[in-house]
Design goal:
four-stranded antiparallel beta sheet; alpha/beta; DNA-binding; Endonuclease III, domain 1; Nucleoside Triphosphate Pyrophosphohydrolase; three-stranded mixed beta sheet
DNA sequence: AAGTCGGGGCT
DNA sequence: AGCCCAGACTT
């Protein structure tokens, strides 16, 4: 199955011993539970540990168990996800809690877990192995990188998904059947702290003697995966402030992204006819961010009187069209009571300082 | 199989 | 600017 590792038991022992000694003291490890494992795995989808950490603690304080989460309003749930991104994760986690409390007992196998929203191949294996001692191997980005290097596999994968499927059998063969949860966390921990992209920590690697690319290859060049390029997106937004209130619009609940979140008005969405020469318009700042395969450049324009009144009227008229976004005046002192994406929240906090 | 999710850390 | 991150879901 995996000729490069002659002695799989020794590999498992080396990895687990290292993990027992060197693992980071993460909150979902120090006091584990099924609920904490589920929440952490949702937060960690496409999100680094460092980013999720503060959210996890606040979440646990507000929603300590499935029952509390299931009975909470979705608005409050989203509030505690505010800024983390990929907000369907929060909606799915909320739906999952509602489903779990209706069951006599939690699902037991990856197949059963995958019937619940937001749970796929990775998360089902992670939950069952970590919280239920079920022998399912995880294959995430860390595992792919570690296994590609250990096996010195320089094949070019046309997508991340293809690489995941390629290494699944290997991951299964290396999984320690006695401690599957720790074994899974150990190989991910190795990828996150030792076998990192730059491959600078090979001298301290606990499985260096098993690593084919360290012996005769180029670890830092592996894995070889074609990544989709980020496309640039340009957005112009309006800053309209009147008596300590700012004009925002709310994205409809049925929108595909950022539903129920507030944003600075988008020129295109409101069909604002911007005359750059207009003295009421002043370029405020340029903001850059990115999500997945998009790199977004947003230009914020401060709009003053008398154009501000005209624009406000335009925005207000737009409210009549139900498919459009609704406009609201929001007091700058109470922006914590509405839902904002991370970037918008930061921008408006900055504007508060200027007013 | 590819695109989307409008996030962010790191080099 | 590019790559990656404890991915899942839609089309």
């Amino acid at each position: 199955m995996f000729p490069l590792i002659k002695n799989i038991p020794k590999f498992r022992t080396a990895l687990l011993s290292w993990y027992d000694a060197e693992q980071r003291p993460l909150p979902w490890r120090t006091t584990p539970s099924l609920y904490r494992t589920v929440v952490s795995e949702f937060m960690l989808q496409q999100t680094q540990v460092k980013t999720a950490l503060p959210y996890f603690d606040q979440w646990m304080h507000q929603f300590p168990d499935f029952d509390t989460l299931a009975k909470a309003d979705i608005e409050l749930v989203l509030k505690y996800w505010e800024g983390l991104g990929y907000y369907n994760r929060a909606r799915n986690l909320h739906k999952l809690a509602k489903a779990i409390i209706q069951l006599d007992e939690p699902p037991k196998t990856p197949e059963q877990w995958k019937l619940l929203p937001g749970i796929g191949d990775y998360t089902s294996a992670a939950i069952t192995s970590i919280a239920q001692n079920y022998p399912a191997a995880v294959v995430d980005g860390n595992v792919v990188r570690v296994l590609a290097r250990i096996s010195n596999e320089n094949k070019c994968f046309s997508s991340n998904g293809q690489a995941v499927e390629f290494f699944r059998a290997t991951a299964e063969s290396l999984l320690d059947p006695i401690r599957p949860g720790d074994a899974n966390q150990a190989i991910m921990e190795l990828g996150a702290t030792v076998c990192v992209k730059a491959a600078t920590n090979c001298p301290t690697c606990p499985v260096q003697s098993f690593c084919s690319s360290y012996k005769s290859g180029d670890p830092k060049s592996l894995p070889n995966i074609v990544r989709p390029k980020r496309t640039k997106v340009f957005i112009d937004r309006a800053i309209i402030i009147k008596e300590n209130s700012i004009l925002l619009h709310k994205i409809p609940s049925n929108a595909k992204r950022l539903s129920d979140h507030f944003e600075l008005p988008n020129f295109e969405a409101f069909n604002i006819n911007l005359d750059a020469q207009n003295e009421s318009v002043r370029k405020h700042s340029i903001k850059r961010r990115s999500i997945s395969n998009q790199s977004i450049v947003e230009t914020l324009y401060k709009i003053n009187s008398p154009l501000a009144e005209t624009v406000t009227q335009t925005v207000t008229q737009t409210v009549e069209e139900p498919t459009q976004q609704e406009a609201y005046w929001v007091d700058l002192k109470s922006i914590n009571s509405i839902l904002l994406s991370g970037p918008h929240k930061r921008w408006i906090e900055e504007l508060k300082e200027e007013v």
